[in-house]
């Protein structure tokens, strides 16, 4: 693996010049058509999986691709969702889970998270995912995508766009060893 600085140097010298026209346009335009909510896991790279160019995906990545339901005290995830949907006007929103997810594994196998209290607290946003799961890890990963889509729909900006027919919600599961992306059935609400 190369270092971060070497990576930046390579980007400036080898990658940027080939896309200079695109970056010049993006300097004054930000109109991504899609919101992608994925796991922070380093193996899940939204732009790579969807073959998207810079400017095409508005990305939110959280541990376990969790989307806290709307609360009276909005956090950074809520603000990013609202900005993507209400201000940028994305027309598609994806919640993408993945195989071998560390967050989901910790829940499925009831890991002791007492040494990581922030993680333990954050994973409570998957309580409903656990509650609706009848099988093992793969089942939890899928039910978690469905539960987080339901959470996403509790945000007023999303609810408004859905009611207007201006937004499509999608649930995906990405399989790391094969590169396959499974699209889950649409979820009510
Ligand atoms: Zn994960």
Can you describe this structure?
- With 189 residues, the chain is an alpha/beta fold.
- The protein folds into 2 domains: 1-29, no CATH class; 31-184, 3-Layer(aba) Sandwich (Beta-carbonic Anhydrase, Chain A), CATH 3.40.1050.
- Helices cover 41% and strands 15% of the residues.
- The protein has 9 helices and 5 strands, in the order ααβαβαβαααααββ.
- The chain has helices at 4-15, 20-26, 46-49, 76-87, 102-108, 117-122, 127-131, 137-152, 156-163, and strands at 34-39, 57-62, 92-98, 168-174, 181-183.
- The protein has a 5-stranded mixed β-sheet with strand order 2-1-3-4-5.
- Helix 4 (76-87) runs parallel beside helix 9 (156-163).
- It starts with a helix and ends in a 6-residue tail after the last strand.
- The protein binds zinc ion.
Strand order, largest beta sheet:
2-1-3-4-5
Assigned CATH architecture of the largest domain: 3-Layer(aba) Sandwich
Summarize the biggest pleated sheet. 5 strands, mixed
Helix- and strand-based class?
Answer: alpha/beta
The CATH class designation of the largest domain is Alpha Beta
Helix-strand topology string: HHEHEHEHHHHHEE
The residue fraction in helices comes out at: 40-55%
The bound ligands are: zinc ion
> Would you report the number of β strands?
5
C-alpha geometry? globular
What are the low-pLDDT stretches, counting only 5+ consecutive residues below 50?
none
The radius of gyration over CA amounts to 18 Å
Distance between the first and last residues' Cα? 43 Å
Count the helices. How many? 9
Number of domains: 2
Strand content: 15-25%
CATH topology heading of the largest domain = Beta-carbonic Anhydrase, Chain A
Mean pLDDT: 96
At the fourth level of CATH, the homologous superfamily of the largest domain is Carbonic anhydrase
